[in-house]
Amino acid sequence: MASLVCARLACKVTASLNRPDPPGGVAQGLQLGEALERCHAIDDLGLAWIEEPIVYDNLEGYTRLTSDLKTPIQIGENFYGPRALYTALQMKVCDYVMPDFMRIGGVTGWQRAAAIAAAAGIPISTHLYPEVAAHVMRVTETAHWLEWQDWANPILQQPYEVKAGKLHIPDVPGVGLEWDEKAVGAYLADNF
After folding, report:
1. Does 85 lie in the same domain as 28?
2. Average pLDDT, 10 consecutive residues per value, the chain (192 residues)
3. Measuring CA to CA, which residue among 72, 123, 79, 122 is closest to residue 99?
4. One domain, residues 124 and 144
5. For the chain, what is the domain count?
6. Which helix (H) or strand (E) holds 25?
7. For 36-85, what is the HEC assignment?
8. Residue 3 sits in the same domain as residue 18
9. Entry pTM
10. How many CA atoms are closer than 13 Å to the CA of 49, on its beta-carbon side?
11. Residues 106 and 151 in one domain
12. Cβ atoms of 23 and 47 closer than 8 Å
């Protein structure tokens, strides 16, 4: 039954992304033993990676998963600063990293983390904040994937556009974010 569910999930993910090699994520919801069982069950499905199947700070567990599986393991949403990324890479806990801007230390923390990942030859993807992440990915040596959400689009004057699978950064100063003040006003707490 588990393998059937995994196969169906892989087909749905593949269809939704229109990609032959979709990622797979389970949001830190598994214990190590269950993660080993489930990840082995999907290891031959051609996933691009498996994202954070166990709690983020179980580094020894991630080391085991990374060494046991053919499918790459990606972690990093919960790295609190570049040193956490460095420690993880020293322990060989993953194949790919995905720092979160808020937790890694903003643009400066990202640049430091990206240099560590580059020195280790580890691909780095973004977690959230795509309007800022798009800019730093352009100067990240081992840039891998830009995680995209259009959540800010309703309150932006000029939303970023995705065309043919590529994000097009607006040709404006700074990071290109200008708020649509009228749209932002509709979300003020006073309006609820």
Report:
1. no
2. 41 43 63 93 93 94 97 96 98 97 95 98 95 92 93 91 87 87 90 68
3. 79
4. yes
5. 2
6. strand 24-25
7. HHHHHHHCCCCCCCEECCECCCCHHHHHHHHHHCCCCEEECCCCCCHHHH
8. yes
9. 0.81
10. 17
11. yes
12. yes
